Amino acid sequence: MEHLSLVDWSRAQFALTALYHWIFVPLTLGLTFIVAIMETIYVKTGDEWWKKTTKFWMTLLAINFAIGLATGIIMEFEFGTNWSNYSWIVGDIFGAPLAIEGIMAFFMESTFFAVMFFGWDKVSKRFHLISTWLVAIGSNLSALWILVANGWMQHPVGMHFNPDTARNEMTNFWDLLFNPNAYTKFLHTISSGYVLASLFVISVSAWYLLKGREIKFARRSIMVAASFGLIVSLFNLTTGDDAARQNALNQPVKLAAMEGLYNGKNGAELVAFGILNPKKSVDNNQKEFLFKLPIPYGLSVLSYHKVNAFVPGLKELVYGDKAHNIMSAKEKIQKGKIAVAALKEYKEAKAKGDKEKAKEALAKFEANSKYLGYGYLKKPTDIVPPVATTFYAFHTMVGLGFWFIILFIISLYYVMINELHSKKWLLRLAVLSLPLGYIAQEAGWITAEVGRQPWAIQDMLPVGMATSNIQSSSVMLTFWLFAIIFTALLIAEVKIMTTQIKIGPKEA
Amino acid sequence: MFEKLSYLQLQEYWWFLVGLLGALFVFMTFVQGGQTLLHRLARNEAQRDVIINVLGRKWELSFTTLVMFGGALFAAFPLFYAVSFGGAYYVWMAILFCFIIQAVAYEYRKKPNNLFGERVYEGFLFINGSLGIILIGIALGTLFTGGNFVVNSMHLSHWTKSTYGLEAVLNFFNVAFGFMLFFIARILAAEFFIKTVDNKEIVERSRIVLKYEGAIFLILFLYVAYAILTMNGYNYDPVSKVVNLEHFKFLHNFLAMPIVAGVFVFGALLFLAGIAIDLFVKKENGIFYSGVGVVLVVLSLFLILGYNHTAFYPSLANMQSSLSIENSSGSRYTLIAMSYVSLMVPFVLAYIAFVWKAMTSKKISIAEVENNPHHY
To answer: What is the distance between the alpha carbons of residues B376 and B374, in angstroms, rounded to a whole number?
Structure first.
C-alpha cells in the first residue's frame, strides 16, 4: 500500500508540474512566431506602428516565458528526484534528447532572448530580427527534442535491454530521432501551440474591440492571428489524424480507451460525442455508453484508412484474440515473470561465477525479455488506463479543435470585410474561447499520458517500477509545496498579464 | 572519429564536458552573487533598477547553464543522476525551489499589480543567490565527502538516511565549500558591476565588497584546498571493479596529473589577480581574469574527482556502491552519439560570446534602464 501511494504521489507531482508547465509553453511556442512575423513586417515596411505592436506582444510573451522556465526546470530534474529507477533503466536513451535540447535549443533561446528584449538600440534592425526568429526557432527546437523523448516513451525504439547493466541501452540514434511517433507528436504539439497563440492574440484584440479601443491595433493583430491560426489549425487536424494512426499501431489500448471501445469490431464506429456508462468495466457485460453520437466506420478509417478494418477493443487486448493474433495480457504477464526471474538467476549465477547456469538463465531471459515490463504487473486488467479520463479528455480536445477552426474562419471573414468590430457576439465568443484553448491543450496531454498508464515506457516499464525509492510522505510534502508556489505564481502571472493588457500597446 | 576512442576515453571526455559545464555555471553565478549584493550596493530605486537590469540580461544564461549541467549528467552519467537526485531528495528539491522563484522575479518585480510587491521579488532573488548557491556548493561538496546511498546488483539505489541528503549540511567541509561558492559568486558579481555599470557609487561599493569578501574567500579557499589535499578518497579498480580506500587520494591525483595541478594553481592565481587588478590597479578587467580563473579551478576539481580511477561520488553506506565515471556512465554507443552532438558546443560558445560582446560593449547607465520600456 505504501508503495502504491508513493507511485500515486510521484505521478501526482509530475502531473501537477507538467500541467502547470503546459499552461505557459504553447503560448510561448506560438507567440514567438507571431511576434517574429510582426517584426518582419516592421523591418520590411519600416512602419513604426508595427514595431510598437511587436513590442506589446513581446511584453506579454516575456511574462509568460519566465514562468514557463520556472516550471520547466523542475520537470527535467524530477526525472532524477522522483523517477530515479526510470533514470537508470532508460536514462541511456532518454537522457540524450534532453541533453541535446539543452545544447541546441536552450542556449539559443536564452542568448537571443536578451537581444530580443534589450537589444533594440544596441544591435542593428536586421540582427534584432534574426534574434527574434532564433528565439522562435529555439523554443520550437526545444519542443522537438522533448517530444522525441516523449515519443520514445509512447513507442520505444532503437534500444535493447542489457542484462549485465540491467537497463535499456541505445542501439540506434536515428531510430530514436525518426521515430514516427516522435515527429507526429512534435508536429501535432507545436501546431496546437500556434493555435493557442493565435487564439490568445484574437481574444485579447477582441477584448479591445469590445471596449472600443486600439481599433487599428486589434484589427491588424486579428488579421495576422486568424490567418496564421486557420492555417495551423488545419495542419493540426492532419497531424491529429496521424497521431491517432500511431496509437492504433503502437498503443491500441490507449486508442480503445480514447474511444471507449470495449468490444473490437470490423468497421468500428467513431464516437463523435458520448456519455460513458460509469458501471462499465472490462470484466462485465454492461453496455458501453449511456448515450452516443456515432460516425459509422469512422474509427476503422481513422486508424487504418480502411472501412472494414478490425479495431481491437479493451476486451481483446486484455483477454487476447487468437483470430486477430492478439496475445492476452495474462500470457504476457506470465512471460514477463519468467523474464524477471531469469534475469535475477542470471545476475546471481554471474556473481557466483557459475557460467553454465548464467548461460542457461540468459537464454531463458532473452526468450521472454520482450515482456519483461509485464512481469511487474499483478493482473491482466492492470494494462487498462482510466477509460473515462482518457475518453473525455480526448473528445474535449477534438471538439474544441474543431470549434477553433470555425472561430478562425468567421473572424478572418469579418475582419477582411471590415465588420468585425460591430459583431459583438463574435467578439464575446472570441474572448470566452481563450480559456477553452488552455483546456484543449491540457486535455491533449491528459489523453497522451493518462492513456499510456500503467506504463512509464509503453509495454516496457510500468510506473510502479520507475519511481525513486523514497518515502511517500516526502513526495507528498513537495507536492503540496509545488502546488502552493505554482498556484501563487500563476495568480501573479494572470494579474500581471491582465494589467498589461489593460494598459495596452500605447505604453509598449 | 569518436568510434576510435576507448570506452574509458569516452567516459573521460564526457566527464570533462560535465566539469566544464559545472565550471561555466560557477562562473555564471555572478548573477546570483549580484542578487545578494542588491541592497549592499544600491542606495535608491534607480540604483537597484540598474543592478537588476544588468544582471537581468544574463540570468537566463546562468539558468540554462545549470539545466545543461543537469542534462549532460543525465545523458552521460545516468546512474549518478538516479542515485543523487533520487536520494538526496530534499537538498535538490530545496535547490529547485530556489531557482523557481528566481525565474519569475526579474520579469515580475517591477510590473504593476504583481501580487507580492517589489520587495518580495527582491527577496526571492536574495534567497536564490544565497541559499540556492550555498546548497549547490554543499551538494558539490558531497562529491568529495560522499552520500548515504546503496546501489543494488540491478543498479537500483536507495538512500539510507531519512533526512534524504539534508545530513550533508552537518559536514563542515560541505558547508565551507558552499560558502566558498557563495563568496566566489559575490566577488565575480562585484567585478562584473565594475566592468558593466556606469555608476560611480555602485562601482566604488563594489570595490569595497572585493576588498573584504576577497579576504574571506581566501581563508575559505585555503581551508578547502588543504582539506581536499589531505582527505581520503576512494579508488576504483577497473579490473576487479572493487572500490578501495586511499589516503590522500586527491593529492595523489594531482601528482599523477601534473597538468591538472598546474591548471588548478594557475586558475587560483588568475582569480586572485582579477581581484587585485580591480582593487589596486583600478582597472575594470578583473572579471576576465577571475572568470577564467574560476572556470579553471572548478574544472580541475572536477578532473581530480573523476579521473585516475577515482570514485567521484563515494557511498558512506556501502563503499562498493560508490560511483566512478566507469561504473555510472551511459553505454558506449550513447556516449559516441552524444560526442558528435558535443561538436556543436564551440559553435554555441561562439554565438554566446558574440552576443555577449554586442550587448555589453557599452556600460549600462541608470538613464538607459529608465528609457527602455522593457526594463526589469
So the answer is: 7
Give the pTM. Answer: 0.92
- Would you call A76 an interface residue with chain B, using a CB distance cutoff of 8 Å? yes
Range of the domain at A447: 2-251+386-507
Question: Mutation test of the interface with chain A: which of B77, B121, B333, B340, choosing the one with the most A Cβ atoms within 10 A?
Answer: B333
Q: Are residues A332 and A405 in the same domain?
A: no
Residue where a domain stops, chosen among A350, A384, A418: A384
**Does A283 share its domain with A391?**
no
The one-letter code for the residue type at A111 is T
ipTM score assigned to the predicted complex: 0.93
pLDDT reading at A241 higher than 70: yes
Tell me the residues of chain B between 335 and 354 that have a Cβ less than 8 Å away from chain A.
337-338, 341-342, 344-345, 348, 351-352
Could you give the angle at the alpha carbon of B124 between the alpha carbons of B120 and B127, nearest 5°?
130
User: Does A11 share its domain with A81?
Assistant: yes
pLDDT tens for A66-94 read: 888 888 888 889 999 999 999 999 999 99
| Mutate: best of B101, B164, B242, B355, partner A, most A CBs <10 A | B355
Domains: count for chain A: 2
What type of residue is A123?
V
User: Does the distance separating the beta carbons of A92 and B331 come in below 8 Å?
Assistant: yes
Hey, is the C-beta of B157 within 8 angstroms of any chain A C-beta? yes
| Residue B238 neighbours by CB distance under 10 Å | 11
Q: What residues contact residue B337 under an 8 Å CB cut-off, 6+ apart?
A: A96, A170, A173
**Alpha-carbon distance B61 to B346, whole Å?**
16
Cβ pair B333:A171 closer than 8 A: yes
Residues with Cβ within 8 Å of A264's Cβ and at least 6 positions away in sequence, in order, are A256, A310, A311, A312, A313, A315, A316, A321, A324
Cα A142 from Cα A99, distance rounded (Å):
10
Domain boundary among A367, A384, A401: A384
Same-domain check for residues A144 and A162:
yes
pLDDT at A507: 47
Place of cell 581566501: B218
